[in-house]
């Protein structure tokens, strides 16, 4: 408050009360009145001096005429003064007091004798008397009566400035009052805005709750169906021995589980908590590889055209999420073109300037119905759908939005009703080179050695399942329920060839911290992390730990574990001393 | 007080002369002359205020300023009374009667009554003495010469002569002169 400039503090004070403005205006008026009074005094004194000087000049001129009785000459001098309207009365007296010559314009006649004294003011007249002297000899005296400045002349002199002062005072007062009222209105407005924001926030919360309700309802419904398939499949599986039927039932159960897994993935992506496994990818190759998928997902009357610019920068994204996102947009495009058409997928570099980064822009454009402007901002909301009940979940574009934002990019959508829609995904350019294809081509095979795996997992069911799968894959395993136990077992029950840890675990240490601790203690022991739900998953991949995303298949487990073991020196063959 | 009183008396006399004695022509002449000499005496006492003498003309700043009367003396005590108590700057005015005109006489103003002798005036031509001569004189006048205009006593000034004697006459006085020879 104190270091604010004076002007602003004054304005703030003005804003509080209009009285200050009026006070300043009154002060201005009083000050100018005082100044006017002082001026008036000065000008009167000056006028007296002026008349005195004129009287002395007259006295000097009259010395000789008085000395030598030249009344005519004296009259000439005095008549000369008649021309000036300033002089009301002028008289010249001999030393013995005789009036020699003089005139009066109006009012009182000249005094019969003249007594030389100090200048005095009588009514509207300034009266000045001076002696007529020559070489120290007094020859007579002069009487001069001059009018003070007339009221009208004085008024004229002060009128202009008075008008300016009054107008300025009025202006200050009015401005002060106006400013006070405006700031009062502004305060009311601010309060109203705050109230409205609060109401909006409450509305948003209510909407969120509603969406949550929809979500849980939808998820429960879908899961019920899947669980129905799985449980009835299991039941039927137990009752039949026909191997063909059993295979069909097992397929049905597996598909139900896969659909459930996909559903939760989509939900997590929407919640932006899905663990992403970003890889450095070549956009063109990745999208071109979707060609088969497009053919299966889109109708025959939909043609997909690609248009990729030369020298696209690599980007770091989760490739499977990118596939899903592009497919989601393509399916929306397909549905927007019920009579067929062309979907154009293009990509180009989008160089940034000083404030923005370099981006790669992927655009999926259709020539469909378009989206009305009032709906355009809703399309990324979860469960927003224009499709008929049962044909869409409303999670497609939510997945796109969640995924792109998690990858540090942005989504832009442009649409014109009747002309089509263009959805653009912008991803930041990656500074790293393209990663070599590893995951899909690595052959999965049963391990020949009996590598020992430490499984750190708090959930007993998951732990036993993982143990089973590892055994199936040809590994041996031991389980620790907490991070502390895992560390103790490494010390006491080793050696281990690999540590496989859940990321969320009870106790002081979570999976990531456990992994870091293991690397610190046993740099040669490879660590694989697994999680289904964690923000820390991103930092796990960032720190270079291989990640298993739950739920995973035995095949994935085998590949990841195999890769981890291959990348580390074989401790089983060369035990530590 | 005395002076004021005498002035008032003088005024009364003047008014009496002008109004009361006007019808008598014979007595009017002498009366007019008498009043004219009174005016001249008054003027003689005032000239000094409008004239500047060289500093050498005074022994000291308070030395008296002397008015000398030579030749025919028409004033008598009238002039003495006029100058009594008068000062020009710090110089008291005094009157010397019956002076003979000669070089080096201790006068500042010299009134020459009657016919002025040219030789006498020539003798003091280069001295700082303001010479005043009576009116009517046909011959050479003084630096200031009384004259009559209408019925009033006026004067002419010979500025050249005054300059020759080292005397400066104020322009105020010159303005009132009937005639100024330069």
Please tell me about this protein's structure.
The complex is a heterodimer of chains A (577) and B (182). Chain A has 577 residues and is an alpha/beta fold. Helix content of chain A is 50%, strand content 19%. Chain A is built from 15 helices and 17 strands. Chain A has helices spanning 6-16, 18-67, 71-82, 151-239, 243-270, 283-288, 291-297, 319-336, 373-376, 396-406, 460-472, 483-492, 511-521, 536-542, 554-567, and strands at 87-94, 99-104, 120-122, 125-134, 137-147, 279-281, 302-308, 315-317, 341-350, 359-365, 410-416, 420-428, 452-456, 476-480, 498-502, 527-531, 547-549. The relative contact order of chain A is 0.06. Mean pLDDT of chain A is 81; it is low at 437-446 and 570-577. By secondary structure, chain B is α/β, with parallel strands linked by helices. Chain B is 37% helix and 26% strand. Chain B has an eight-stranded mixed sheet with strand order 3-4-2-5-6-7-8-10. In chain B, a hairpin with a 2-residue loop joins β3 and β4. Chain B starts with a helix and ends with a strand. The relative contact order of chain B is 0.13. Classes of the chains: A alpha/beta (577), B alpha/beta (182). The A-B interface holds A 61, 63-65, 67-70, 73, 96, 134-137, 139 and B 4, 7-8, 11, 39, 42-43, 46, 48-50, 86-90, 152, 155, 170, 172-173, 175-176.
List the helices and strands and how they pair.
The complex is a heterodimer of chains A (577) and B (182).
Chain A: H1 6-16, H2 18-67, H3 71-82, E1 87-94, E2 99-104, E3 120-122, E4 125-134, E5 137-147, H4 151-239, H5 243-270, E6 279-281, H6 283-288, H7 291-297, E7 302-308, E8 315-317, H8 319-336, E9 341-350, E10 359-365, H9 373-376, H10 396-406, E11 410-416, E12 420-428, E13 452-456, H11 460-472, E14 476-480, H12 483-492, E15 498-502, H13 511-521, E16 527-531, H14 536-542, E17 547-549, H15 554-567
Parallel strand pairs in A: 7-9, 13-14, 13-15, 15-16, 16-17
Antiparallel strand pairs in A: 1-2, 1-5, 3-4, 4-5, 6-8, 9-10, 10-12, 11-12
Helix pairs in contact in A: 1-2, 1-4, 2-3, 2-4, 4-5, 5-10, 8-10, 12-13
Chain B: H1 2-20, H2 25-47, E1 51-52, E2 65-71, H3 77-83, E3 87-88, E4 91-99, E5 109-113, H4 118-123, E6 130-133, E7 144-149, E8 152-158, H5 159-164, E9 168-169, H6 171-176, E10 179-181
């Amino acid at each position: 408050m104190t270091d604010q400039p004076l002007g602003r503090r004054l304005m703030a004070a003005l804003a509080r009360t209009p009285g200050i403005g009026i006070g300043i205006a009154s002060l201005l008026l009083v000050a100018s009145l005082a100044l006017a009074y002082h001026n008036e005094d000065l000008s009167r004194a000056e006028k007296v001096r002026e008349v005195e000087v004129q009287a002395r000049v007259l006295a000097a001129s009259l010395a000789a005429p008085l000395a030598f009785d030249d009344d005519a000459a004296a009259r000439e001098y005095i008549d000369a003064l008649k021309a000036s309207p300033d002089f009301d009365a002028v008289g010249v007296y001999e030393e013995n007091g005789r009036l020699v010559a003089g005139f009066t314009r109006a009012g009182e006649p000249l005094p019969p004798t003249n007594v030389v004294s100090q200048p005095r003011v009588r009514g509207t007249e300034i009266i000045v008397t001076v002696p007529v002297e020559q070489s120290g000899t007094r020859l007579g005296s002069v009487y001069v009566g001059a009018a003070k400045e007339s009221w009208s002349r004085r008024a004229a002199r002060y009128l202009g400035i008075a008008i300016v002062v009054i107008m300025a005072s009025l202006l200050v007062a009015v401005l002060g009052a106006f400013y006070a009222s405006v700031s009062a209105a502004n305060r009311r407005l601010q309060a109203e805005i705050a109230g409205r924001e609060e109401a909006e926030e409450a509305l948003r919360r209510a909407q969120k709750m509603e969406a949550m309700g929809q979500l849980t309802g939808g998820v429960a419904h879908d899961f019920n169906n899947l669980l129905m398939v799985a449980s009835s499949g299991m039941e039927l599986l137990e009752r039949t021995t026909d191997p063909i039927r059993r295979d069909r039932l097992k397929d049905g159960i597996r598909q139900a589980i896969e659909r459930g897994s996909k559903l939760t993935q989509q939900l997590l992506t929407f919640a932006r908590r899905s663990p992403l496994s970003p890889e450095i990818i070549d956009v063109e190759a990745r999208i071109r590889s979707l060609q088969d998928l497009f053919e299966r997902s889109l109708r025959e009357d939909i043609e997909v055209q690609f248009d990729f610019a030369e020298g696209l920068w690599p980007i770091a994204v989760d490739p499977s999420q990118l596939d899903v996102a592009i497919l989601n947009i393509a399916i929306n495009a397909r549905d927007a073109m019920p009579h067929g058409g062309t979907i154009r997928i293009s990509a180009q570099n989008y160089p940034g300037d000083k404030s923005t980064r370099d981006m790669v822009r992927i655009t999926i454009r259709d020539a469909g119905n378009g989206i009305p402007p009032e709906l355009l901002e809703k399309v990324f909301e979860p469960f927003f759908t224009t499709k008929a009940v049962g044909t869409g979940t409303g999670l497609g574009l939510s997945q796109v939005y969640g995924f792109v934002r998690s990858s540090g990019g942005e989504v832009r959508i442009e649409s014109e009703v009747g002309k089509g829609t263009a959805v653009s995904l912008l991803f930041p350019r990656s500074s790293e080179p393209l990663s070599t294809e590893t995951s899909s081509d690595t052959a999965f095979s049963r391990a020949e050695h009996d590598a020992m795996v430490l499984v750190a997992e708090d959930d007993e069911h998951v732990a036993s399942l993982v143990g089973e799968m590892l055994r199936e894959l040809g590994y041996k395993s031991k389980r620790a329920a907490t991070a502390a136990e895992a560390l103790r077992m490494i010390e006491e029950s080793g050696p281990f060839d690999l540590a496989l840890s859940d990321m969320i675990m009870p106790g002081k240490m979570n999976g990531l911290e456990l992994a870091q601790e293991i690397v610190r203690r046993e740099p040669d022991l490879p660590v694989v992390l697994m999680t289904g739900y964690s923000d820390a998953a991103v930092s796990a991949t960032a720190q270079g730990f291989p990640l298993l995303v739950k739920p995973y298949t035995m095949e994935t487990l085998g590949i990841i574990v195999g890769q981890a073991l291959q990348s580390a020196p074989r401790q089983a063959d060369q035990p530590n001393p | 007080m005395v002076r004021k009183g005498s002035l008032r008396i003088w005024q009364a006399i003047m008014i009496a002369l002008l109004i009361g004695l006007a019808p008598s022509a014979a007595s009017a002449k002498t009366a007019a002359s008498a009043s004219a000499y009174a005016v001249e005496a008054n003027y003689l006492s005032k000239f000094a205020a409008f004239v500047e003498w060289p500093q050498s003309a005074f022994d000291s700043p308070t030395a008296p300023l002397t008015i000398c009367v030579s030749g025919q003396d028409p004033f008598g005590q009238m002039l003495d009374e006029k100058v009594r108590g008068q000062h020009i700057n710090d110089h008291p005015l005094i009157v010397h009667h019956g002076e003979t005109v000669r070089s080096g006489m201790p006068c500042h103003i010299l009134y020459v009554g009657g016919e002025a002798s040219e030789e006498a005036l020539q003798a003091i031509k280069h001295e700082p003495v303001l010479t005043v001569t009576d009116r009517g004189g046909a011959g050479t006048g003084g630096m200031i010469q009384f004259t009559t205009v209408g019925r009033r006593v006026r004067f002419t000034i010979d500025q050249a002569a005054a300059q020759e004697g080292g005397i400066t006459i104020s322009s105020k006085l010159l303005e009132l002169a009937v005639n100024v020879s330069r």
